[in-house]
Amino acid sequence: MSLLSLRKSQPLTKPTLRSVDDFIEDALHYAQGIDTKPVRGSHKDTSSKSSDNRVVRLHKVQKGSAMRHATFTLTPECILKLTQLSKQQGKAKSALIREWIQQNTQ
Questions:
Q1: Per-residue model confidence as pLDDT tens digits over 31-48
Q2: Phi and psi of 5, rounded to 5°?
Q3: For the range 98-101, what are the long-range contacts, defined as Cβ-Cβ under 8 Å and sequence gap of 24 or more?
């Protein structure tokens, strides 16, 4: 094997530009198990709507109040106790922490 064979080769074809709608449509087909290959040089109008009736539009769930992620550090012992309490009470760990904060700030 020579050093020339280790050289990075140039791609054989240039990637074709596709619209966002085409990309999303291909992703939906992939998720549904439909094997479709993109046709080269065919660009659909981005303003056209998909005629696929099998696609179900999901509605965003509105939250009562906006929550933000928080990062904090707990000892392994605290994590174990929090996990046990979560399993015993059937509540999420974050819900338990929010309840404790509310109880201790009133």
A1: 888 876 655 555 555 445
A2: -75, -15
A3: none
Q: Please write the tens of the pLDDT for every residue from 49-100.
A: 555 566 667 676 666 677 888 888 999 999 999 999 999 999 999 999 999 9
Give the distance, in angstroms, between the CA of residue 89 and the centroid of all CA atoms in the same chain: 30
> DSSP string covering 51-96, please?
--TTPPPPPPPPPSS----------HHHHHHHHHHHHHHT--HHHH
Tell me the two tokens of residue 84: 């046990």
**Amino acid making up residue 30:** Y
